[in-house]
Amino acid sequence: MEFKTLPVVQGDYQLRDYDETVAAFSWADAEKQFSWHESGKVNIAHEAVDRHAESYRKNKVALYYKDGNRKEAYTYYQMKRMTNKSANVLRNHSTLERGDRLFIFMPRSPELYFSLIGTLKLGVIVGPLFEAFMEGAIFDRLSDSEAKAIITTPELVDRIPVDKLPHLKTIFLIGENIVEDGMIVDFNKHMKNASHSFQVEWMDKEDPTLLHYTSGSTGKPKGVLHVQEAMVQQLQTTRWVLDLNDEDIFWCTADPGWVTGTAYGIFGPMLAGGTMLVVGGRFSTEGWYEAIEEYGVTVWYSAPTAFRMLMGAGEGPMKNNDLSSLRHILSVGEPLNPEVIRWGMDAFKQRIHDTWWMTETGAQTICNFGCLPIKPGSMGKPVPGIEAVIVDDQGNILPPNQMGNLAIKKGWPAMMRQIWNNPEKYDSYFVNGEWYVSGDSAYMDEDGYFFFQGRVDDVIMTSGERVGPFEVESKLLEHPAVVEAGVIGKPDPVRGEIIKAFVALHEGYEPTDELKEEIRQFVKKGLAAHSAPREIEFKDSLPKTRSGKIMRRVLKAWELDLPAGDLSTMEV
Ligand code: WT7
User: Fold this and answer.
1) Which residues pair with residue 18 across a beta bridge?
2) What class of enzyme is it (predicted)?
């Protein structure tokens, strides 16, 4: 295949020579930039906040926050105090101990960031939850991890099925007019009087920090557990890939409910002592361009869906704002269409750098770097220190230009260390005990660039969010009208994929548009808005294997008008 490569834009990139760095680099060396390398005692909250508060960065802004008219700024010194206060509130008003699980379920706000970092100061594991989650999704995550506490708001607290969660002891509420009882604690009230000093818990580099639940093609969402050591890769990639310097203003648009929003929406930039912007609320073309101008964003990390929406909004809204501060733009979450890169060259006069990684990898793994040409359509090359290959189903490494499973050599610092409560599942990710198999199919060209081809499994990526078809199917089956359900991702020009459900109805139910809407709302209210099928098609029955498994492959073939392949296991 022929690709036109795009030129390198000169800048103060910290990764200057890719091949030289690959040859010379080791993670063990990278670890030496942290003082805990010698003591062995570490806490990511100390490294991300306190260390800078005790340095020349003390009065540097760590966090800008903007949501409508609420605009705030916190220096590293203030972040240290606010996170210490949060840690004291959590310690004094709960029975949380090192290694316990606490979830944070609230919209982006400074309090979310204070309390998340504060929790880590206690050595407690944080499970961030996206604010759109509904009762079913919350229950699955809190019960699987036997969470002891949750931080949320009065608007969201009703979605927590307290009666069904025997391990849940404390609910910290952040809001107004809160009535405390044995379980409910008014977080802001206690913040006022809490001490601003706190001795962080010193941890081991293999101790856990974050528990991000994510979807696979089968079963309930799985708890992907990350550890302190991930910080080595988060910092290194923040320098190499985000190219973050001291004077930058960095904006990662992701919510901390997803791994991008913690790894690069909190830790990467703060480990680097950077200044980051958090914008509350939902996507809006005008609002986003305005934020770039108002804060003078220089480095911007977003997702293809967002770029496609901005692209669709045309030049008009762009003209209202000065976007010339932007000097480095990156993307993650889904394939970045060459068309979007071309639009970026036109609109921002620069390249958009695609990055590939997953919840499980914990940090960026395959990326486009400032120092290398971009081949539009490629996710880039492995981060130095990462060994990525294409393997066949037996784990044999394939030569260039052959499609297969994208795999990474086990042992990179940010790699997940456990699937919560499910060691068999964890082991199933690795072939020959050596290669982590990602679930993505891809090929590598003769220059070492990787090209994404699709998911190997049935996982759906819709607007950059990962949705497991099984979860949606299970929820659909709870609706009284539904007897069978099969869910697939249907290609969509803006969202990448949309969720499409094929549904067979119980006798006596009429296949009406009203019923479709009712079923859609049922999933939305039970799981989350982004999990609800945008399209529902009624069928008399669904294709199944003889053992009764819905054949999503056949549904997909129906949808796309493709040959359905081997149907020998299909029940007829
Ligand atoms: C899946 C992981 C941590 C990043 C946010 C998503 C898809 C991710 C790319 C890319 C094509 C991509 C893959 C991957 N994906 N980045 N640059 N090009 N596909 O994390 O929710 O764990 O999803 O997102 O399919 O397996 P996630």
Assistant:
1) none
2) ligase
